[in-house]
């Protein structure tokens, strides 16, 4: 077969883009060479519908060992007693959970997308908002922080069958204990989607959702630094709180309902090459090196958010507990779109983001979201965060000045050449 140089040249081009620039997209990271290596293997050839030991195809002995290792390592990393590592992505993990525990038309209660929630938590353009009756809670205008009394009042009014916590753009920790108390009062299941801060949670730097939430979903590629993918976990509460039944009518354990929500509910064959990469990433995340990494991620985020505050930026909730921050650009007379477009010309990648109570559309937005997971993987420390804030501010204040932006880009490229990424 002729080598597809067109595609491989583009892959090299993308590698160079990643190496040359400053990556501040909060959901991105740089997976290790062995995580990437595992994804490009013959495991992609194998069909393995079902679970280890219970497959619908022959020849699964080897992938069974790999998937079992992934499950065991996931359980060790998060202190879970059960895990399904097959979801192809975070959205797929949430779809599987909802299919498993809800019926069409049931009420759910999630964190408002425009306040930092995720599409899969009930947005009208997503399956979760089309199939279920979605209600939302948000942050307070004054503080940018969730008021749990309001969550409780909303839950009592809407009587959701599933409450969802976790976010894509919320920089504060969550009170899972309080949320569980609210869920218990209204007879709801509590799902925590920790896609973003999963790595910090795994290593004990944030509250542990598995202490209180019935079900926890996550991606594996954000702070967790594994391959693009998702997973579902539980620690306790294996009872089936609603007497949920299978299509045949028999009562099922929560774990088998959730397994069924993944396959055959929402997916076909699992991606065993990606599951192998997940197993590697979980092992890496159990290491001392990764512990130092997440500590540095959190330290870097605190320093960076303070640097922006010091430069007169409005950081929502005035700081961060995790790896990210959300900045309202209105006091600087900039939109998120202008910021994103200006910064990319300086090889600094961020994403525009709605801020709570935004008056602009999702295509324009008033804010930008920044995270430290990727640049910390590159080896950047506290002082480097101050320099990044300088560069970002300089580019934003000159977002229409092409020559200034190209000078900043040169500086960014030469600085980044000191932090080799993939040799
Ligand atoms: C990123 C994210 C997801 C979706 O993950 P994908 O892998 O992109 O499908 C779901 N929930 C939250 C809170 C996220 O941040």
Descriptive notes:
The protein is α/β, with parallel strands linked by helices and 423 residues long. 43% of the residues lie in helices and 13% in strands. It has 15 helices and 15 strands. A hairpin with a 2-residue loop joins strand 2 (50-51) and strand 3. Helix 3 (61-78) packs parallel to helix 10 (272-285), helix 4 packs across helix 9 (254-266) and helix 6 (148-158) packs parallel to helix 7. The longest helix is centred in the C-terminal third of the chain and has 23 residues, at 288-310. The protein is globular and about 70 Å long. Pyridoxal-5'-phosphate binds at residues 27, 89-91, 118, 120, 166-168, 193, 195-196, 219, 230. (6S)-5,6,7,8-tetrahydrofolate binds at residues 113, 117-119, 361-363. Its EC number is 2.1.2.1. This is Serine hydroxymethyltransferase.
**What small molecules does this complex bind?**
pyridoxal-5'-phosphate
Q: Strand fraction band? A: 5-15%
Shape: globular
Q: What is the averaged pLDDT score?
A: 95
- Rounded radius of gyration (Å): 22 Å
How far apart lie the N and C ends?
28 Å
Helix content: 40-55%
SSE string, helices as H and strands as E: HEHEEHEHEHEHEHEHEEHHHEEHEEEHHH
Helix and strand composition category: alpha/beta
The residue ranges in which pLDDT falls below 50 over 5 or more consecutive positions are: none
The overall strand count is 15
Helical segment count: 15
Largest sheet entry: 7 strands, mixed
Strand order of the largest sheet: 4-10-9-8-7-5-6
């Amino acid at each position: 077969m002729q080598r597809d140089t067109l595609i491989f040249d583009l892959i090299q081009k993308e590698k160079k883009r990643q190496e040359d620039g400053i990556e501040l997209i909060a959901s991105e990271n740089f997976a290790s060479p062995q995580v990437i290596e595992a994804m490009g293997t013959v495991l992609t050839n194998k069909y393995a519908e079902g679970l280890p030991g219970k497959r619908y195809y022959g020849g699964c002995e080897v992938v069974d060992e790999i998937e079992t290792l992934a499950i065991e390592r996931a359980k060790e990393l998060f202190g879970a007693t059960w895990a399904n590592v097959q979801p192809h992505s975070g959205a797929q993990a949430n779809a599987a959970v909802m299919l498993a525990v809800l019926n069409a038309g049931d009420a759910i209660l999630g964190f408002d997308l425009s306040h930092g929630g995720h599409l899969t938590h009930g947005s009208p353009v997503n399956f979760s908002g089309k199939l279920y009756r979605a209600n939302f809670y948000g942050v307070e205008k004054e503080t940018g922080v969730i008021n749990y009394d309001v969550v409780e009042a909303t839950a009592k009014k809407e009587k959701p069958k599933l409450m969802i916590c976790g976010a894509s753009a919320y920089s504060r920790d969550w009170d899972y204990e309080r949320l569980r108390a609210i869920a218990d009062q209204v007879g709801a299941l509590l799902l925590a989607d920790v896609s973003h801060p999963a790595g910090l949670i795994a290593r004990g730097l944030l509250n542990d959702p598995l202490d209180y939430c019935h079900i926890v979903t996550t991606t594996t590629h954000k702070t967790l630094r594994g391959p693009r993918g998702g997973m579902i976990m539980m620690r306790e509460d294996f009872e089936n709180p609603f007497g949920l039944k299978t299509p045949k009518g028999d009562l099922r354990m929560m774990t088998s309902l959730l397994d069924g929500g993944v396959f055959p509910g929402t997916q076909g064959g699992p991606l065993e090459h990606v599951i192998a990469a997940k197993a590697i990433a979980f092992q890496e995340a159990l290491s001392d090196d990764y512990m130092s990494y997440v500590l540095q991620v959190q330290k870097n985020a605190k320093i960076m958010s303070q640097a922006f505050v010091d430069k007169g930026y409005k950081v929502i909730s005035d700081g961060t507990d995790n790896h990210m921050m959300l900045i309202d650009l209105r006091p600087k007379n900039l939109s998120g779109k202008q910021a994103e477009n200006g910064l990319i010309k300086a090889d600094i990648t961020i994403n525009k983001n709605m801020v709570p109570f935004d008056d602009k559309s999702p295509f324009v937005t008033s804010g930008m979201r920044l995270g430290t997971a990727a640049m910390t993987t590159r080896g950047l420390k506290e002082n480097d965060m101050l320099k990044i804030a300088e560069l970002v501010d300089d580019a934003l204040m000159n977002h229409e000045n092409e020559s200034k932006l190209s000078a900043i880009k040169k500086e960014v490229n030469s600085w980044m050449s000191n932090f080799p990424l993939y040799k």
